[in-house]
Design goal:
Its EC number is 2.3.1.199. This protein has about 325 residues and is mainly alpha-helical. About 60% of the residues lie in helices and about 5% in strands. The protein is built from 11 helices and 7 strands. The longest helix has 27 residues.
Length: about 325
């Protein structure tokens, strides 16, 4: 047994020794264990601890917090996108085949640093799930949602450790661009109805995300048909991520924008961002929060703030809202 443990440890350290020596002393890069533990705690908190802590508590009012959070994430994503462009993709990088530059040239080091910040951004996105839980939107924290966010930091760590640059950074380039648009959308959405008229393109955002994953899949798998000095293991791993995320968002799209009854029955509302929405169905049913309240032909108090109220008219003088349904009182 001792021999097996020693052999396993030797293999483990041998694999780590093959990592890029330039990043060995960077934060969280010496070992995958801290990243793995954080990801495991995220999964536990998202599925067990978080909902348990909120079980007997009222949803938090997070409108202003979400506006600020999405604003910061928009700027952060824009900066990372710019750095990816300036460190390779705007000039010297090839879309057909791009090996990793392991040199200490200023451009190669700039790309490596950008990869680290992209890795760090995967941890900041954990707040997406936290805000769902604090607002008691537990249906949004689906299995695929948790897999998506929980796997990304570890996956990016692997790329950062062994290949901080090159072909697969196209995935991060597209992903950060989509996040610019996405976080901006959710920032405006959280600002209230007076601003939501400017985000009429909401439906196309999910389509945009799915196109991203198809592009990532195609860009990675082209290396199967050409000679390229880039690790094919990373290529396959990133391509599989594209398939997983495409499934996640296509399922969300079917539930959100089509009348697919089977999709609704097996719905996955695991959108990746903390959405603030006010929706009214065709038959007058109000699809909003889980809060109960009385409708007096005027206003319904919103969960988002004391000042932000949404007006609903269901044609009756008095009504009572219970579990997203408006019922006339006799």
């Amino acid at each position: 047994m001792a021999h097996l443990v020693t052999s396993a440890l030797d293999n483990y350290h041998g694999i780590l020794d093959k990592g890029d020596p330039r990043v060995k002393g960077w934060a969280m890069m010496a070992s995958p264990i801290p990243t793995l533990l954080i990801c495991l705690f995220y999964a536990y908190f998202s599925t067990v601890l978080g909902p348990k802590l909120m079980e007997n508590r009222k949803p938090f009012n997070l409108r202003k917090v979400l506006i600020f959070y999405n604003f910061i994430q928009t700027l952060f994503s824009a900066w990372i996108f710019y750095e990816y462009l300036m460190s390779g993709w705007w000039g010297s990088y090839s879309f057909r085949c791009q090996p990793v530059d392991y040199s200490n040239s200023p451009m190669a080091l700039r790309m490596a640093r950008t990869c680290w910040w992209y890795y760090f951004s995967k941890f900041t996105e954990f707040f997406d799930t936290l805000f769902f839980i604090l607002r008691k939107k537990n249906s949004h924290v689906s299995t695929l949602h948790v897999i998506h966010h929980g796997c990304m930091p570890f996956s990016v760590w692997m790329g950062m450790k062994f290949a901080p640059g090159g072909h697969s950074t196209f995935f991060a380039l597209l992903n950060t661009f989509v996040h610019i648009v996405m976080y901006f959308y959710y920032m405006v959405s959280a600002m209230g109805p007076e601003y939501q008229k400017y985000i009429w393109w909401k439906k196309y955002l999910t389509t945009f995300q799915m196109v991203q994953f198809v592009a990532i899949f195609a860009h990675q798998f082209q290396l199967l048909f050409t000679e390229c000095n880039y690790p094919k293991g990373f290529m396959i791993w990133i391509a599989l991520h594209g398939v997983l995320f495409l499934f996640l968002f296509s399922d969300f799209y079917k539930v959100k924008y089509t009348n697919d009854k089977s999709a609704v029955k097996n719905r996955n509302t695991g959108a990746c961002m903390p959405v603030l929405e006010d929706e009214k169905s065709q038959n007058g049913t109000i699809k909003k929060s889980d809060s109960n309240g009385t409708l007096n032909n005027t206003y319904i108090k919103s969960e988002y703030s004391d000042s932000y109220k949404a007006y609903y008219s269901n044609g009756s003088t008095n009504g009572f809202i219970v579990q997203r349904e408006s019922k006339k009182l006799d």
